[in-house]
DNA sequence: ATACTTGTAACCATAACAATTACATTGTCT
DNA sequence: AGACAATGTAATTGTTATGGTTACAAGTAT
């Protein structure tokens, strides 16, 4: 299984809002860049808004970032779009047999390990900000321009 | 989304094979500890066998570990049961708009970052061996005994 | 031969996902 | 006020992974 593309789309949206900040970022416009339906964008935007990453208002066209670019890490986006619940990256079979030494302990033994592994991944995401993403994209564009 | 419990079940199975190594570990027996169907166990066992972690033979009851406990990391189990493909922990929306600076670069920008995050998680799993799991369970059992 | 076990394949119910449609709500503009 | 446009949200759909279940062929031992 794999983590929902809502995460990648969230990054895409926020990046585009920044790069197109002089324009009007309607859900329709953003959707055309992501290549999906505008309702999908609005749904994700709602999550980003709840997380305080973005300002959008009903009836008013366009979205703006609510924070500075360098203040938003990928981990913030990841949490915002709710792709993985806390301590639930790995699922554990439930109701193992309590009459077996392994069955009655496996969950408690394995959970903290899974938790460490999940945290390691999340830590890596928190080391990257949207500013890094935007810079990288601008770099790539510049390279092509030559 | 969350990573299939095949992983946790794989750990459970291997641990139990070790702890019950004086007994006969049939799929039926293992299934009763995991609390699932024996066919599910056999399917997972097939994966563990393909990965060279376990010895099982058609018609012959019982499974044995194919390696030393301390030589099997959780990452080995994780790879064996195929819960996450390489570089595919995170999914990325496909066909973003190539006419948009963000659309045409987002994949190349984001992929290496996702890859680093996934590796960090996998690294954490490779730091733990089945010997650690078995020890922890035996510790927990001993504590209860007092 | 009989009994037991592993190895597979087929099938099913469930859940998450992304896309889509539809519509109420909110705001802007004339 | 009324028309228009955008957001917010709910309902529906096709697709896919999962975990469980049944069934049975193939291998092994007594």
UniProtKB/TrEMBL annotation, chains A, B:
Q: Quote one Gene Ontology molecular function term.
A: DNA-binding transcription factor activity
Question: The organism sits in which domain of life?
Answer: Bacteria
Signal sequence range: none
The GO cellular component terms are:
cytosol
InterPro entries, alphabetized: Tscrpt_reg_Rrf2, WH-like_DNA-bd_sf, WH_DNA-bd_sf
Q: Which PANTHER family does UniProt cross-reference here?
A: HTH-TYPE TRANSCRIPTIONAL REGULATOR YWGB-RELATED, WINGED HELIX-TURN-HELIX TRANSCRIPTIONAL REGULATOR, RRF2 FAMILY
Protein name as catalogued: Rrf2 family transcriptional regulator
